[in-house]
Amino acid sequence: MNSSQFREASHAAIEEIIQYYDTLASRPVLSTVSPGYLRPLLPNGPPQTGESWPAIQSDIERVIMPGLTHWQSPNFMAFFPASSTFPSMLGEMYSAAFTAPAFNWLCSPAVTELETVVLDWLAGLFALPECYLSKGEGGGVIQGSASEAVVTVMVAARERIVQRRCGHMEDGEEKEQKMGEERIKLVALGGEHSHSSVQKAANIAGVRFRSVPAPKSSGFRVTAQSLRQKIEECKSKGIEPFFMGLTLGTTNTCAVDEFEEIVAVAKDYPDIWIHVDAAYAGAALALPEYQYLAAPLAAFDSFNTNMHKWLLTNFDASVLWVKQRRSLTDALSITPSYLRNEFSDSGLVTDYRDWQIPLGRRFRALKIWFVLRTYGVDGIQAHLRNTIKLGELFHSLVVSRPDLFTVVAGPAFALTVLTVNPEKRGAARGARVTPASSPDPNHEAYLNDFTSDAESQYLANANAVTKEVYERINSGGEFFLTSTTMEGIFTIRVVSANPMAEEKYLRRVFDVLVETAEGVLAARERGK
Ligand code: PLP
Questions:
Q1: pLDDT at 444 over 60
Q2: At the N or C end, where does the chain have fewer CB atoms within 10 A?
Q3: Where in the chain are all domains bearing CATH 3.90.1150.10?
Q4: pLDDT at 326
Q5: pLDDT digits (tens, 9 = 90+) for 151-203
Q6: 450 pLDDT exceeds 70?
Q7: Which amino acids bring their CB within 6 angstroms of ligand 1?
């Protein structure tokens, strides 16, 4: 493809992408293809002679489009959003054009230096404590995903504690032996509702993992007390907690662990590296009304959030800050002669290869820079506030029908988590309709007549109804929602943080929930 063919092809591709975005809302959000749909649509191998761009492009509609789940659709209210915007796509285009795997500063100084500046801008936007800025001992780096960020800091934490235990020893076999003995004792901790990436990171880092309880009674949050208790329990068994993964905005309910109280725990156990995973909800720190959550980070060791979730930047861009960048470079810097150069040796430049797992890296700062400049702080804040407000609106609709729904969590950071009542309750529309044989756990009479059998029967019924409603909505194709189960309660999650989210879509998904719940309950009633 020469430059004039590229001009023509890229214009055609951009037109198609624009058309795709303009028609997203009217496309069924979920793909309906069956597993293995794609292979029969393609030849058995690559073509012997090259094809023209129009021939290739036409397969986007024929082959790819049917198998796409439309994450950018305003009807996508599942998981957390993976947002993408036009300025961020332009960043990707330039990044692809320049392709410069800038592992060392020298490999492309602009790639490294823009990243450092943009990460300092973001630290300011999120009101992170000064210790995370590059002018001090800390700094930020862009990782591919939150999972990569967590495994990277966990390895740094592991090596930090091992060095603290063995750093005084002379290099040699005896030291190596002692370091091995220390590593074997290590245990990483994560909250009960921390993302699974914390446990995965422990598997990769070759350490044990223990979960810190965060029950419904604590709002699904890790409390200082439960953390202390778990640390002491581990120590009493001869295993050494060295890492704790806290969460700002858990995947299940967007709960925020008890940061302020955990500051005292961090002081009492300075060998435990405390990381805050704010993959999704960290975006809210761009709003002054949420910045109180950033202050306790001064007592912790690292923090990450994903630009590619709620912050208008396409996958992949997870921003990670550490308080002591030396902890990363001490653990990850290995410099064979072919990677040495006078700039790196001078210590005056950053070589981001020492802050991450891979050697090479993409020019991801460009798309973040484009997004920040196109939207400005005002535009980003307006997007966050708008989607939070839509979440509150949706929540207000749900609580207006206590006969049908129970809110389990939220509204929090544009997320509401709900269940469908197994029998229509009368509270909203007159008399209580729940028969005594199927007690309403919120009702005084039920509480007085409480038996564990009645409770588990109620839960089983509620789960069956909620699951049926959830499955019917997703198979309807108009909306995509996700479910989660906590303490045996099957719930439906609805997230309104998509860049295309609007009130009409939230009102419509609520109407669909009501229609579906009423249909399921009526069918069950008829079947009795
Ligand atoms: N942490 C939290 C709280 C999440 O909700 C998620 C994904 O939704 C992740 C981590 C994993 O993110 P990534 O796909 O960037 O690894």
A1: no
A2: C
A3: 381-527
A4: 93
A5: 999 999 999 999 999 999 999 999 999 999 999 999 999 999 999 999 999 99
A6: no
A7: 79-80, 145-147, 195, 197, 247, 249-251, 277, 279-280, 306, 318
Residue to mutate, 277, 304, 314, 315, ligand 1, most ligand atoms under 8 Å from C-beta: 277
Q: pLDDT for 151-164, tens place per residue?
A: 999 999 999 999 99
* Atom of ligand 1 at shortest range from CA of 147: 16
Report yes or no: 361 and 353 within 8 Å, Cβ to Cβ.
Answer: yes
The pLDDT value given to residue 340 = 75
**Sign of the CA dihedral with 273 first, then 336, 206, and 201 last:** positive
**Residue 399: pLDDT above 60?**
yes
List the one residue out of 295, 287, 289, 211 whose CA is nearest residue 250: 211
Give CATH for domain 381-527. Answer: 3.90.1150.10
Which atom number of ligand 1 is nearest to the Cα of residue 79? 8
Q: Which atom of ligand 1 is nearest to the CA of 194?
A: 3
Q: What mean pLDDT value characterizes the chain?
A: 93
CATH 1.20.1340.10 maps onto the chain at: 3-68
Count of C-beta atoms within a 10 Å radius of residue 126? 24
Q: Residue 511: is the preceding peptide bond cis (ω within 30°)?
A: no
Q: How far apart are CA 507 and CA 390, in angstroms?
A: 9
* CATH, range 100-166+181-362: 3.40.640.10
Report the CATH fold assignment for 3-68. dopa decarboxylase, N-terminal domain (1.20.1340)
For the beta carbon of residue 67, count every other beta carbon within 10 angstroms: 13
Residues 398, 405 contacting (CB under 8 angstroms) = yes
CB 463 within 8 Å of CB 503: no
What is the whole-number distance in angstroms between the Cα of residue 393 and the centre of ligand 1?
Answer: 25
